[in-house]
Amino acid sequence: MNKPVELAITEDAAEGKINAQSMAAARALIGNKLRPEQYLRDASVDSLTIFCNGIGDLNPLYRDLEYSRWTRFGGLIGHPCFPWTHHWPGRSYWGLPGVHGFGVMIDCEYFRNVRPGDRINVWNRVIDIQEKPSKFSGTMAMQYLESTYTNQRDEILCRALGMTARHERKASRDTNKYKDVKTHTYTDDEIARIEEQVMSEPSRIRGAATRHFEDVSVGEKIDEIARGPLSMSDTMAFVIGSGRGAAHGALLRHAAKHPKHYVRNKLGQGVEYTGIGHHRENFAREVGVPGMYDYLPQRAAWFATAITNWMGDDAVLKRLRMEARMFNIQGDTTFIGGTIVKKYVKDRCALVDIEMKGVNQRGELSSPGFATVMLPSKDIRTKVPTDGTVVDLDLEPVR
Predict the structure, then answer these.
(1) Could you give the 3-state DSSP secondary structure of residue 280?
(2) Is residue 328 within 8 Å of 360, Cβ to Cβ?
(3) What is the dihedral of CA 342, 156, 166, 140, to 10 degrees?
């Protein structure tokens, strides 16, 4: 008879420490390449569409085969954030065991589109780790990780710098910074306005109506989109769209290797990953958050949608940066818009910089951001952006 397997998984999450020893061990990894996670890697019509469903993107360029055949791409391309399905940028799976991680920033530069049939690879390089003061937990460790995404031809699709804030779980609970934050109660009129904005969004997708460089001005606003009120269906849809998840034997085998990354649900003894706070309120409170909350790349993908809706099929998203400065918890709505702050030409490419803002239903700036877009120009001396265009972002203003 086989001996019963005993898993060293407890009901309470591991309580790691940020101290000289743990920081030294984490710093020893700076400059190293890390083995990537093994999640969704193959781009197919189905996986590209399911990812769009997971972030609520309805742009036909990324999901409609017949529509996309009539664009300059001649076929379907992936949403700019699709490569992240293989590995969420900045994800904190290195160093500081038992210290909880929250993604706080993604800064991504784009080089090529994903197409059906592509196979995504990623390699991660540890950039830095710094100890910083925190109102949330007293002391935190900020980790910096660079992720380079390539296709099966070893061509770079995008490169992302991710930042993750690591907080001691007990310190976060004890500080209880968000104890007074409650789930928002909406009026009927507020819900009606949000739902009207969401339902009418497809009519405001620029699509085939080319937006030229000459037609935009500094100070011009991009169309605002709304995402929310955030529900468990939203967070679960993002996990599904990213190909995440394991159950039963697949889950237990991984938990046996990494027991500090898992807990037993106190109500039913089932094994859960310590990121379950994205979907379960009582565990979120154990790490100092007032309720279930969204994922950093999920929110960043919403920012990409706001930009791609505005720019049209003939433009190229060159850079996207998004910071999560506040938790986006269950019941919150994020209104995402932007303002053109600069337009210029570099290497004969026409570009605009857009200052982005994600504001919640309380009017708080929860997510500042930034984007650079290459637009087609009516001036024949400028290049029409194409697949594979690489532009140096040390850019100069138009004279």
Answers:
(1) coil
(2) yes
(3) -50
Percent of the chain with pLDDT over 90: 67
Between the alpha carbon of residue 184 and those of residues 232, 329, 336, 399, the distances in Å are 15, 10, 18, 49
208-234 pLDDT, tens digit per residue, is: 999 999 999 999 999 999 999 999 999
Domain CATH for 35? 3.10.129.10
Q: For residues 378, 380, 383 and 385, what is the CA-based torsion angle, rounded to 10 degrees?
A: 30
Domain boundaries, position 143: 20-374
The total of other beta-carbon atoms located within 10 Å of residue 349's CB is: 21
15 within some domain: no
Decide: 328 and 229 in contact? Cβ < 8 Å.
no
Q: What is the number of H-type helices and E-type strands within the chain?
A: 9, 12
Picking from 153, 95, 103, 102, the residue whose alpha carbon sits closest to that of residue 128 is: 95
pTM over 0.70: yes
Residue with the two structure tokens 């996309």 = 68
Distance, in Å, from the CA atom of 263 to the CA atom of 270, rounded to the nearest integer, reads 8
Task: Tell me if 71 sits within 8 A of 208, measured CB to CB.
Answer: yes
Q: Residue 92 falls within a domain, yes or no?
A: yes
